[in-house]
Design brief:
Layout: H1 4-39, E1 50-56, E2 59-65, H2 82-101, H3 103-106, H4 117-140, H5 147-168, H6 171-206, H7 214-238, H8 243-246, H9 251-273, H10 281-296, H11 305-310, H12 315-321, H13 326-336, H14 362-367, H15 369-378, H16 392-408
Antiparallel strand pairs: 1-2
This protein binds heme C (HEC).
Length: 409
């Protein structure tokens, strides 16, 4: 029963592995096509609209672009869609495993909003779907003809979502949800807009009709958005490793400013690939925004040890502390872990709790029970390099406590 923790940890790893691989494939192919398209030589004779020569892996490639479509359907056509779909599917699975199944620890934060876990999960699922509906509505409205205004509105929407998520979820969950919100829009662009339009064009070609040029134009708008959203999404997905990005009071603003860097960085590459020069000023702007993020993360933290100590424990948390085995485990954790994992760490050179994990109060310890078990009972990951000299007996005390709690429940 308690070894579900092992299965769980490995399942999470497997899904994360899949997610990173598919995301690399998706982003890789999308970056490749953006650069290819921008770099095409368009002054050519013949039916194609542009062409490019490339060399890679010992061979030369001669690529031609036909816009809207070639005269006749080629016999074999490679589509690019599963990279995107699998990134979304594996990301959704990971969100469910970490933030829904582990919601008491990672999703809801009682001091922000008094939500039951199921309510948090409902908000999580609903917000991700509604985001796409709002975005799609904006793109299809007359604003679709004014790309710059549309982009600004999109930025306002993302900032509002960032703020909203931070009002109800933990900082970690807020940043991940903002990333998932954006990534859902990106995959839906592929699934709901780009692919169906592409299929209409292919259908027209097969039937001998000339495809309408509007389909290419619509797809172009959506893929431009995807282009600018990619880097911020990757930042948000990585943010959980850095407590200063998600567990500080201005985290919602930090998350929204990241989207500006997505534009400034991509602008340099897009201009470069189109052989229109090198707008180096964009790097200066990016650096200024990055320094601004770092500065914003130094705002005063509201939560104190006393507040945490006074928090009422949930029934599940109670089940971890009301055990005879708890006392021994607690004293190990206070003696071997809290010097680093504190609201004000006393470990030399440590200025904030690593990964935002606090292990000071009974509530902290109960919330992180499974992580403590995996990090220091089942494995020797913590304390790092066993720097605080935890003994094998103390690790056993942690295991005994966790196993007693889980088999009792
Ligand atoms: C010397 C400081 C220090 C001590 C002592 C320490 N940790 Fe950590 N802990 C860290 C650091 C640094 C990280 C971040 C590691 C990383 O970035 O992968 C961390 C991360 C963690 C995490 C989060 C892991 C994750 O990937 O989400 C948990 C849980 C944890 N520690 C539990 C413990 C427990 C339990 C103990 C005591 C048995 C302990 N730590 C003792 C420094 C410490």
């Amino acid at each position: 029963m308690y070894d579900l923790a092992i299965l769980w940890d490995w399942a999470e790893f497997a899904i994360r592995w899949l997610h990173v691989i598919t995301a690399i494939a998706w982003i890789g192919s999308s970056f490749y096509f953006i650069a290819l398209d921008l770099g095409l030589n368009r002054n050519i004779d013949g039916p194609a609209d542009g062409e490019e020569w490339q060399v890679h892996g010992g061979g030369f490639y001669h690529i031609q672009k036909y816009m809207v479509a070639p005269e006749a359907m080629p016999e074999h056509l490679t589509w690019f869609k599963w990279e995107s779909y699998w990134t979304w599917l594996s990301g959704a699975a990971l969100l469910m495993v970490v933030y829904w199944a582990g919601g008491e620890l990672y999703l809801i934060e009682p001091s922000k909003a008094d939500l039951a876990l199921w309510q948090g999960i409902l908000i999580s699922a609903a917000s991700l779907s509604i985001g796409w509906l709002i975005y799609d509505f904006l793109c299809k409205s007359p604003l679709g003809e004014r790309p710059t205004t549309l982009m600004l509105l999109l930025f306002v929407l993302l900032t509002a979502m960032s703020w909203g998520y931070h009002q109800i979820f933990t900082g970690r969950a807020a940043l991940i949800h903002l990333g998932a919100f954006t990534a859902t829009i990106m995959t839906a662009n592929v699934f709901v807009i780009i692919m169906p339009n592409q299929r209409i064009v292919v259908g027209d070609l097969k039937a001998g009709r000339t495809p309408d040029a509007k389909y290419g134009k619509i797809a172009k708008l959506r893929s431009t958005h995807n282009n600018y959203l990619t880097l911020p999404v990757v930042f948000l997905m990585l943010s959980t490793h850095y407590p200063l990005s998600f567990a500080t009071p201005h985290a919602w603003l930090i998350a929204s400013l990241v989207f500006l860097m997505g534009v400034t960085i991509r602008h340099w590459f897009n201009t470069q690939h189109a052989r229109k020069g090198s707008p180096h000023w964009t790097w200066a702007v990016t650096a200024i925004i990055f320094v601004l993020l770092a500065w914003l993360s130094t705002g005063p933290l509201g939560d104190s040890y006393d507040d945490a100590e006074a928090r009422v424990l949930s029934p599940r948390e109670q089940s971890f502390v009301q055990l005879a085995e708890f006392e021994a485990a607690e004293s190990v954790i206070l003696g071997r872990c809290s010097m680093c994992h504190a609201r004000e760490p006393i470990w030399d050179g440590m200025h904030w709790a690593p990964k935002g994990v606090f292990l000071e109060t009974r509530g902290d310890i109960a919330r992180h029970a499974r992580q403590i078990y995996v990090q220091s009972g089942l494995s020797h990951a913590m304390p790092p390099a066993n720097i605080t000299d935890i003994s094998p007996e103390e690790r056993r005390d942690i295991r005994n406590w966790y196993r007693a709690a889980v088999s009792g429940s």
